[in-house]
Design brief:
Elements (H helix, E strand, L loop, with lengths): L4 E4 L7 E6 L8 E7 L11 H10 L6 H8 L3 H13 L3 E9 L2 E8 L3 E4 L18 H6 L4 E2 L2 E2 L2 E4 L18 H8 L11 E3 H6 L7 E4 L6 H6 L6 E3 L6 E3 L5 E2 L4 E9 L2 E11 L2 H13 L1 H4 L8 E8 L9 E6 L2
Parallel strand pairs: 3-6, 9-10, 9-11, 11-16
Antiparallel strand pairs: 1-2, 2-3, 4-5, 7-8, 12-13, 13-14, 15-16, 15-17, 17-18
Helix pairs in contact: 2-3, 5-8
């Protein structure tokens, strides 16, 4: 089991089930294995026939008679080893059936493998969050995740005066939180994945998957995409308003939009807009996407959508730490 690392997973019983994680780049999969500090716990697997029975079950559940035929061995020999493997917890009885007047038991592997663990301290690893990552977040960015790689750009507004409003963006740093969340799904990109809105224009990257952070006042790409959104930003008042398809208006400081539409420059690509009426609203949108996607996207599977959220201070410390849903797809 060299070149692999074992990570504890919530499980009960002896031997304990853990995750066998391959740390090499390009190997994101993990296997669940039974781990014990006593080699004798796995003794039934040490025999030649025991190993062959386990290998046969690696292809899926089978009856002992099927295994015996595949191995060219008398079925009583296989039954003997199956009983020992079941007692050791290495295989599990899936179901029992009456066939031709007798009981026939279907068996499967209890886990993906087994290992003997020595009493050493081990290597300290960063927390691996992928086992508990948000499925709704993953579905939202499915088109941006290509075999563990980020397929697209994170677009933030330029901090220098730009655009027709000659504004300065001060919300680009909120994309750090988004990057940490995306890191649960993708490897560290070889190419720097964050672009200023002015660079997207200058480098003609509009025909890409784009994650746009910030509203139309501070992000030129958001301004150009705004007319294609099911829920749009509208100028007026101190910081404008958000208007949905039913002409309902949202104009509180912490109101924000999370929307996903096809890229208007290339309908084979996608744009996700995460933006608020103010910088604080954009922060609220980021908090919503990275921490509460399961709440406002419980039924989302694919395609276009838009919702309106409002940042809230749940613990009363004066800082936004949650969102409430104002308009849900």
């Amino acid at each position: 089991m060299q070149n692999h690392l074992v990570m504890v997973c919530q499980a009960s019983g002896v031997p304990k089930e853990k995750l066998l994680v391959d740390p090499k780049p390009g190997s994101p999969l993990a296997k669940r294995v039974l781990v014990s500090s006593r080699p004798d716990d796995f003794r039934p697997a040490f025999s030649n026939v025991g190993q062959k029975v386990l290998s046969a079950l690696a292809g899926g559940p089978r009856y002992p008679r099927e295994i015996a035929r595949a191995l060219g061995t008398h079925h009583q020999i296989v039954y003997y080893h199956v009983r020992r493997l079941e007692k050791a917890g290495l295989i599990t009885r899936v179901r029992s059936e009456i066939i031709r007047g007798g009981a026939a038991n279907l068996f499967a592997l209890s886990s993906d493998g087994y290992a003997v663990e020595f009493g050493v301290k081990g290597e300290q690893l960063p927390a691996i969050q992928s086992v508990s990552r948000s499925k709704a977040f993953g579905r939202l960015f499915a088109e941006f995740i290509d075999d563990g790689n980020l397929n697209g750009w994170i677009v933030v507004g330029s901090p220098v005066p730009h655009g027709k409003n000659n504004t300065q963006a001060r919300d680009g740093h909120y994309a750090i939180q988004l990057g940490l969340a995306l890191g649960q799904f993708v490897r560290l990109p070889e190419t720097f994945p964050v672009k200023l809105d002015v660079d997207i224009k200058a480098e003609k990257l509009e025909r890409s998957n784009l994650i746009i952070v910030g509203g139309p006042r501070t992000n030129m790409i958001a301004e150009e995409i705004n007319e294609y959104l099911p829920v749009r930003f509208r100028q007026g008042g101190f910081w404008g308003s958000i208007v949905d398809s039913e002409s309902s208006s949202y104009n509180a400081e912490l109101d924000c939009v999370v929307a996903k539409v096809r890229n208007p420059w290339d309908d084979h690509r996608w744009c996700v807009v995460i933006a608020g009426l103010t910088g604080a609203g954009t922060k609220a949108a980021i908090i919503g996407v990275t921490g509460f996607a399961e709440s406002f996207l419980p039924r989302y599977r694919s395609g276009e959508f838009a919702c309106v959220l409002r940042g809230v201070d749940r613990d009363g410390d004066g800082k936004v730490d949650g969102v409430e849903i104002l308009k849900q797809p």
